[in-house]
Amino acid sequence: MLQHKDSHRSACKSFEEDLVLYYYGDCREPESHRVEEHLKGCASCRHFLEELQTFLPLTAKPKELPQAFWNSYYEELREKLAAIDARESWWKRSFAFFHPWAVPALGTALVLILALSLTLAKGMWHFKGHRAQEEVPSELRAAAGNIDFFESMDLLDSIDFLEALEDKSSANSEFQKL
Amino acid sequence: MCQRGERQAFEVLVRRYMKRAYQIAFDFTRDGEEAKDLSQEAFLRAYSQIRHFDQRSTFYTWFYRIVVNLCIDHLRRRARIPWERLDGKNQQSAGEEAMGDTSSTPDQEAIAGEVKRRLGTALGTLPGKQRTAFLLRNHHGLSITEIAKVMQTTEGTVRVHLHRAVAALRQSLAELV
Ligand SMILES: [Zn+2]
To answer: Is the Cβ of B5 closer than 8 Å to some Cβ of chain A?
Structure first.
C-alpha cells in the first residue's frame, strides 16, 4: 500500500468526488452505476479507491474504554444534571402555577385590577399602573415559555416515546451500527 | 410535573449517547480530559435547552450539533491541537489493542505508524468544516443527509467538504515511500 509513487497517481477528476462518496456508500444511482462501469476500465480510479479503502479506516479506530470509566462518567454527569435541577427548582416552583393560558388571563386580571386602582386612586397610581401593564405580562410570558419547556419534557417521561424516536432514527440511518 | 422523572428520562438519553458524544469530542480534541468535559457540557446544554428540540427531527442530529459546536468553539479558544496523537494515547484505556493486526512485521508497523502520524497532522490542519464533515462521516458513520442537518448546510456542500478533506488527507501521504 502506498509504497510506490506510481500507486498515488490521481483518479480521473470527474470521478474523484463520486469515488469518495462511493467508498462511503453514499453514491446513489445513477452515479454509482456510472462509477462501477468506469472502474472496470480505469486502473487509476481503481487505485484511488483501493487507497481510500486502505488509509481511511486507519484514522477511525475508537478505543474501548473500561466500563469503570463510563460508570464514573455517568455518575458525574448525573450529579451535574441534579445540580441544574436544584438551581432551577426554586424558580420553577415559583411559577409552577402559571400555565400558558393563564398569561392572558392574568394580564387581563392585572389590567382590571389596575383600572380599579386607577379609579380608586387616580394620579398616584397612574404611573405605577402603566408600568405594571407593560412589564408584568412580558415577564409572565417569559415564565410561560419556560413552562412550555418543562411540559415538553413530559414527553421524555415516556420511554416508549424515546424508543419510537430511536427506532425511527435507526431505520433512517446506518448510524446505529457504531 | 415531576422534575425527578424528567431527569430520569433524560438519563436514558445520556446512557444511550454518552459513548458517542465522548468519542466525537475526543476526535475533535484528541484529549481524554477535554473530551469528557466537552461531552458532559453538551449533555447539560441539551438538558437545559431541550425545549428547542424540534420533536419532528431526530434527537441525535440535534444533540450532535450541540457537541460539534462546543468542540469547535473550544478549539477556537485553544491554541494548539495535538493532532499527532491520532493513536489516542491520551485516552485512558485498558487492554486496548495496538493498531494493525498482530501478525504485521516491524516494517509494516513502522509504515502504518507513519501513515497514522501524517493523517493525524493533516486532519489537524483541515479547515473546520471539512474536518467536521470528515469526522462525522468517517469516524461516526453519519450519512450525508444527517451531517447536513448537524452542520445546517446542504448535502451538496457536505459532499464537497468531504471530498476535499479526503483529498487533503490522501495528499499528506503522497511522498510516503
Ligand atoms: Zn478513472
So the answer is: yes
Contact A106, A88 (CB under 8 A): no
Residue A158 forms part of a structural domain: yes
Closest Cβ opposite residue B44 in set A21, A81, A145 = A81
pLDDT in tens, B78-111: 765 555 444 444 444 333 333 334 456 777 777 7
Q: Are A103 and B66 in contact (CB under 8 A)?
A: no
Mean pLDDT in residue range A141-152? 38
Q: Which residues span the domain enclosing A23?
A: 5-59
**Domains of chain B, first to last:** 1-82 (1.10.1740.10), 104-177 (1.10.10.10)
CA–centroid distance, A57 to ligand 1, in Å, is 22
Establish if A17 belongs to a structural domain. Answer: yes
The 10 Å Cβ neighbour count of residue A124 is 11
Higher pLDDT, B165 or B55: B165
Question: Contact at 8 Å (CB) between A18 and B160?
Answer: no
Q: What total number of domains does chain A contain?
A: 2
